[in-house]
Amino acid sequence: MPPASPVKPAAAPAHALRLAVVVASLGRPDTLAELVHALRQQSQPPEQIILSVTSEADLPPRSAIGEGVTILIGPKGSCAQRNLGIAHVPEDCDIVLFCDDDYVPSRYMAERVRAFFAANADVAGASGRLLADGIHGPGISASLAECIVSAYDGGPAPELAPRKDRYGLYGCNMAFRRQAIGPIRFDERLPLYGWQEDIDFSAQIARHGRIVSTHAFAGVHRGVKAGRSSGVRVGYSQVVNPVYLSRKGTMRKKYATRIILRNVAANLCRIVRPEPWVDRWGRVRGNWIGLADLARGRITPERIVQL
User: Fold this and answer.
1) Considering its fold, how many domains does the chain have in total?
2) Which of 33, 97, 223, 299 could form a disulfide with 60 if both were Cys (CB 3.0 to 4.6 A apart)?
3) Quick one: pLDDT at residue 3?
4) Alpha carbon 207 to chain centroid distance?
């Protein structure tokens, strides 16, 4: 593989950097409306808000969206929907922020994303601080998330510095330089929920600059359960996707092995007393289907659409 060109330092000051926010959403119109409202209330709102959905049913009433928001309707799947969003990011945007529809941003998130990238010219991509994450629990209510964010916003401004270089970023809030993205796209062989698509995308961006975590910008990931893939499909992806990405070269073999073993073990250990919000039986079944496919030499992440 030829060496990649490093990201050039940003010539413009923070206030001149243009920010586009891309949100892929499915079946959560109320949550999407809350995010759009939060983005409009930013101290320095993004120049572009792009909503990538599968049908009008995914959208809140147009009155809740307002004007100046780009709405795209296309194929289902987080990778396909994000790729559609990238294709419609204006050429003059400097930074692209991907966030989940159940992400509740700090009021200063957009302002500090710009400031962070202006202050760190060698960074190609970054995930911000998660004040709370409901993905591994029953989820966080909108009111509690707003309280957490409000309390945070009343505190001192964070440092505009990377905290740690990362192997991959967290898809619920990850920002990249538009220049670093270039022709890179999310892998649409990872369909539907696209498990580990953030790792795959980040690994490709890492060829053009540092991939880091930072406390410069922050928010809450509510972890809303509606609109997610079935347990069988998630379980299958937990086994097959890491092997596929390892073969592709965007996930280290040790990391792939570790997350497969960790998830299979967690599903088996918790099957006796499963959490109400997790289909452990379905995940175990999906794990075994995935392991059987791997034993046959079948590495096909897209098979989940048939399960």
Assistant:
1) 2
2) 33
3) 44
4) 19
